């Protein structure tokens, strides 16, 4: 178990991928110095708690719902946006918990998801070529030369925006907003008039009756008042993640304190690269994304690097193969990882392998294709007898039009109506809840077929 982390210089010497080129090194150093003095955003003990819950996922006793923005922006840190994001994610979790009867570990892509890896360093519009937007953590979305220059002071804004977001999230999940007894009212103003409304209302009625029954039986209703909700993001920017690493006073070991769960993206998972090196030293639960070019050998090496101590809950593997490839590419990867003797949490990201551009130039994803990848993920796990541990979704609580298909049958022409993402297309709230119903049904059927019930092996605790 590591008690130190490499220096920033050592990390950069590994040729850290997808890093901005800052024009002012002194300004960057000053920001890093300032961040090092700031209090941690999350506490090591919280990361440990999440690790225990992910251990439940890895062991087939719980399901992970990891969801949120593709790219958070500073301008979108408002009470309404945070509330809407939480509301749709908690609603999805409730659908899963009730209809599939699995405990759900709720992890947001939130309070830190400000940096984006890009396929191309540049973007060209009307003959003008400028550096690509790399997330509010790095540069501005506006398409002009000044805005696209990487500015290190943005890292302080990431810290401040993440702190403000976490503050409200903690207040919401502990202060009564997430009280299961109010499950009806969570969606009164937003599922209305959609075709998932009736299903959600019927489920809420059943939950209310089930809770009334439990209370009548003498079960304390305290358990319904609060929920656990964790923050995660892609640990992309070396300066930011390094500056927010703290040595835990209890154990003398390093924790990334920018979020509870940190993951390594598909573009930065080089086995000898800086991201794998840094995250292999942190004690948080960590994730790694695996795309369709991953070989079983690489998957095995990554697992051994990132989970050297074979620690329950340490590693989440987020596969994003694409609907057309998942059934062929995933089995060999699962087999290679299982052969190491480790129990990782297997999570399906059905978004990143299924993006395409419309003729009018909108990046989008089609709901049926997204579902097809999830379905393929379940098929593969059913075939191998492994546990399909969760999903990783780009989602917003707002009523956007970014992904086609789904309950409202959005077509490509509708995309122009409310296309608001700063980077990739997200499911809107109705599509999110619809996905949760699909997931619950598939999960329930698979659990029945397996003949083992996750609930029977689960030690009850607040979820
Ligand atoms: O969200 C993930 C990536 O940052 C995104 O898919 C990259 O998009 P690009 O291929 O347009 O750069
Ligand atoms: C960049 C992302 O995904 P991937 O690394 O899988 O491309 C992401 O999840 O934001």
Automatic annotation (TrEMBL):
Matching Pfam families, A to Z?
Answer: DAHP_synth_2
Query: What cofactors are annotated for this protein?
Result: Mn(2+); Co(2+); Cd(2+)
Entry note: cofactor:
Binds 1 divalent cation per subunit. The enzyme is active with manganese, cobalt or cadmium ions.
Which Gene Ontology molecular function entries are recorded, alphabetically? 3-deoxy-7-phosphoheptulonate synthase activity
Pathway annotation: Metabolic intermediate biosynthesis; chorismate biosynthesis; chorismate from D-erythrose 4-phosphate and phosphoenolpyruvate: step 1/7
- Positions binding Mn(2+) in this chain are 70, 352, 394, 424
Return the InterPro entries for the record: Aldolase_TIM, DAHP_synth_2
Record's catalysed reaction(s): D-erythrose 4-phosphate + phosphoenolpyruvate + H2O = 7-phospho-2-dehydro-3-deoxy-D-arabino-heptonate + phosphate
Q: Which domain of life is it from?
A: Bacteria
Q: What is its EC number?
A: 2.5.1.54
Q: What keywords are assigned to this protein?
A: Amino-acid biosynthesis, Aromatic amino acid biosynthesis, Cadmium, Cobalt, Manganese, Transferase
- Please give a single GO biological process term from the UniProt record: aromatic amino acid family biosynthetic process
Coiled-coil portions: none
Residues where phosphoenolpyruvate binds? 109, 266-267, 289, 320
The family classification in the record reads: Belongs to the class-II DAHP synthase family.
Protein name listed in UniProt = Phospho-2-dehydro-3-deoxyheptonate aldolase
Source organism of this protein record: Propioniciclava sinopodophylli
